[in-house]
Specification:
The structure is a homotetramer.
Chain A (H helix, E strand, L loop, with lengths): L13 E2 L15 H14 L4 E3 L11 H15 L5 E4 L5 H12 L5 E5 L8 H13 L5 E5 L1 H4 L5 H9 L5 E4 L4 H14 L4 E4 L5 H7 L3 E2 L8 H12 L3 H14 L11 H15 L17 H13 L6
Parallel strand pairs in A: 1-8, 2-3, 3-4, 4-5, 5-6, 6-7, 7-8
Helix pairs in contact in A: 1-2, 1-9, 3-4, 6-7, 9-10, 11-12
Chain lengths: ~325, ~325, ~325, ~325
């Protein structure tokens, strides 16, 4: 048995980092930093990029800013790798508007969460994904992220939507590895051909053993090459290398635990942005309102972790 | 001691129902039904209306639909009662866009939740409300609704924002009556003058005893007169009448528990819309996508509750 | 309509404080302090006492300590008021053992939670209460405390168990006042005759409006007279007095928010014990292992609240 | 780098199944079934047994039943493999009583959860484990099971307790694989020598990649040989075999999803017991009160999964 089940023709797999959005000090899109970030990803050999995900701060952007990001990224990437585009919004009708915008940027896939804010059940979630799929010929991906939307997508429902041609893939950021394993097994048994990617930076190795087709790790913005090496090793079934890379990346992930008194993306994305500033990729570590940038003390601790990982000189 | 602390000049209090949004069978705004609904509220003597709240399905609307609703409601209400306008959205920048739109409709107040989807802490919530207040001269209200945004606003923080002139009032839909009582007491002790309204249909009487200035009950769409009578009795300290009205309204609220296999607004708002259709106020009980309207069996159970409450003939 | 529905013959109602358990500095039961505490309750005119509840630290006691507390309390109370006895334990078989012990102390009622630790559903909860009721002729009460057992008892289930003669009453510490109001209404509609007591110190007034038969407030250990006055006023439908007493008690309840860096009973029961030490009722504020007693700084803040409430000289 | 860090001298690692407790139809300990179950484990080559864990229904037993189980198991095992003994109870004092009992059965380790029912914070949890460790010379293990105790033990705290000699190992049933990986890394960095076992049946392979020393899988009661083969393969770094075994066991784990209308151990342990009855190891599938045994329809679905896994003839 091979490591992974076959996915549908044309569906991207492998390492598809959720692209950060660098900002200038006054909160505008920072194009030079974005160019350096994309170059770093392409140089590392990533298999695609996920634009307007949670790590990309899409939830904080108005429509104009989302479109500005899409325009800039597609311009810089220029078709060198496929793009997944996020359409995160509260309920179906706004998400469909984002789909319409996304379509104009030739996405390899469109990535949608379950509805949120207003509580919905399985029937509404089903209608939601079917309505999004019907709105565009682009392949639709489900983004399973209960920490943000407070609903867990069930493996059986995902596979059912896959079998019906509604979904092409799943980005699993659920933190529920038991559920992920069942998703892989159900997908394989049903021959659905869903692309199954994990979003959890420090347990990608286990997801590969379970049959994941790739990863969407926020930390890959800081160190894409490690995730690419890990994926190639996993596809070659060289598990010793997989583990060594994962252990190193897990040590690097400690940057997100350095900020004091911060939670959510203010801590996590804030740490990624600060690391990239320290590495000379970003000009600032500015965050979207209402989040403040990390301060000097947090940055010093992040530098120490980067040095420990040999990404910076100590 | 009077029942309630004084609020700031010009801040609406009393019964301010969260206005439902009637839809035609194909999901468009149903103006004739809206006219009947508003007339029912005005005839009952409500003190204001809350437009684009959770019960108004604002979370399901795109910007054009939100603006259509505002235009229609302000046209129909024509200044007869003050309007609170909701600006529910994920994070600060989109909420500010909704503030800009709301301003054009001369709101008596603008109602915003804490940020959601992306996890935020007290610092970000503080920045969020201050940024919204700075964006408009209209008075700002905090909408405390943890069941939707998954963050509880602390009484101390709310009073602090009130003392700083950021907030004019609070719509409490937290279900945490201990917290609400502390909010009333802290506001009174600090002399902040926040208007404090409860959103919980069946325990408004206790909130009045605690010192609430009014209520924002979704059920008032079905029976505004009862909530108006309860509020007048509370202000007159006629608690026997308060209780009698509350008990009757609590019995009527059982309509939201009739739908089988539905959760959230599909059940609750669905029951309100179905009741209003049965009462001849709405033409349909259509819900926003991805929610389905309630079916005949649920409607029959709702009719039975309406008959029990003497709103319909049995 | 009278304020409350009739309860079954012999079922205690009114103010039934959950009795604290004073400890000596080395953690033994402190009899002289217990005598002073009980005398304070009896002098205030309480209608009963709830022994071995959460506030009584029963969860922290081994069986011998539980029995020592029961022996001491029944000796001191000497039948002057009825006793409810808690049988809090993980699952049915241990709870039945506690029922056997409780029976020897002539309880007016036995108070049991839903099962906890191992997850159970409605079927198991039903079997649990029926097995406990079958184990003893003493009336059984359900203790609805989801913050500890992580299951909410549904009003419909409680009324069903009441109608079947399994339950005589409910101590509601759920914090869900919507559910409590539905419980009162369902009990009244079904004529079940359940005694319905609330455990929430600062919203007892609203519970009385809703039809509660009494209260089980931990804070009544510090100020039983206020709760007794509030209950008598409620039964006389003198709501202005109810509110005045509740506002005063709510201000006093702020003692539980004074401890810094503590959660759960270490903060709440710790504040009650510290207040009673400051009032000269308890000799120490010692807590059960693994909880530490509150320190001097917390005690100073608690004294300030007591002084504000005129229970201590400033 | 080897797969796992060294543990302390004498600390058991490897496959240590949480032993089920077979019951007769009238709820008594079923000794012949227990003998067959233990023999099955020993024949498969397990490295130890965990007695009185959650899967062993310890939460449902009174003290006499717990002691009966310990007596029977130690008699049957007769020192052939080391035993870990659970001391699950609400708070410190009762858990210490269980430690005293456990000591009499020469445990290789004693396994305790965080306190539960009453809410506790990090200070109380720290005191709790230190008090338990002080109560006995037997090595103490922390049992991280937030689904039951509603507190997550932090990796940093566990390693700190390990470094202080309080803990010898951790049984991780948290479902939080990110936390587990950090625990492994922190333990390795600090040289604490904690034995780190995972309790999650279907992702043991990932835990081995992360550096787990073994597993405590409830499903191993049904198929110990597979878990033993997986562990040996992991120690030999034969990851292809690890994955193949894990995939097969994950398919077998589907038995726990067959029961209809059941949750918690009534479903999970109920499925294990039913499978063992179908395999001829247990005489009945009786569950502890208040849980009902699975019925014929559930058993038929479980048989189908067993047949699919070639454990039964179809």
């Amino acid at each position: 048995m091979t490591a992974t089940a076959a996915v549908r023709e044309g569906t991207p797999t492998g390492v598809i980092p959720p692209l950060l959005t660098p900002l200038t000090a006054d909160g505008e899109l920072d194009i030079p930093s974005l160019e350096r970030l994309v170059a770093r990803h392409l140089d590392a050999g990533v298999d695609g990029l996920f634009v307007l995900g949670s790590s990309g701060e899409a939830a904080f952007f108005d429509d104009a800013m989302r479109e500005r990001v899409l325009g800039a990224v597609t311009g810089i990437v220029a078709g060198q790798v496929p793009l997944l585009i996020g359409v995160i919004d509260m309920q179906t009708s706004r998400a469909i508007q984002h789909v319409r915008t996304a379509e104009r940027f030739s996405p390899a896939g469109i990535v949608a969460t379950a509805p949120f804010y207003a509580i919905t059940g399985p029937d509404e979630i089903d209608t939601h994904f079917r309505a999004l799929a019907a709105a565009s010929p682009a392949p639709l991906w489900a983004y399973d992220i209960p920490v943000c939307v407070h609903t867990k997508l069930s493996p059986a429902h995902l596979v059912h939507l896959g079998a019906d041609g509604v979904l092409a893939g799943v980005k699993d950021s659920s933190g529920d590895d038991v559920s992920f394993r069942r998703l892989v097994a159900m997908d394989r048994a049903a021959g659905t051909g869903l692309a199954l990617l994990t979003g959890h930076e420090v347990v990608v190795d286990g997801a590969y053993l379970a049959g994941a087709h790739g990863s969407v790790p926020g930390l890959a913005n800081v160190e894409p090459a490690g995730y690419v090496r890990m994926h190639r090793a996993a596809m070659a079934e060289d598990w010793e290398t997989v583990r060594t890379e994962q252990d190193r990346l897990a040590a690097l992930f400690e940057i997100v635990f350095q900020p004091v008194g911060k939670v959510g993306p203010a801590a996590g994305v804030g740490a990624f942005k600060t690391a990239l500033r320290e590495l000379g990729v970003f000009t600032t570590n500015t965050m979207s309102t209402p989040m403040a940038a990390l301060g000097d003390e947090d940055a010093a601790h992040i530098r120490a972790v980067l040095a420990e990982a040999s990404l910076l000189e100590a």
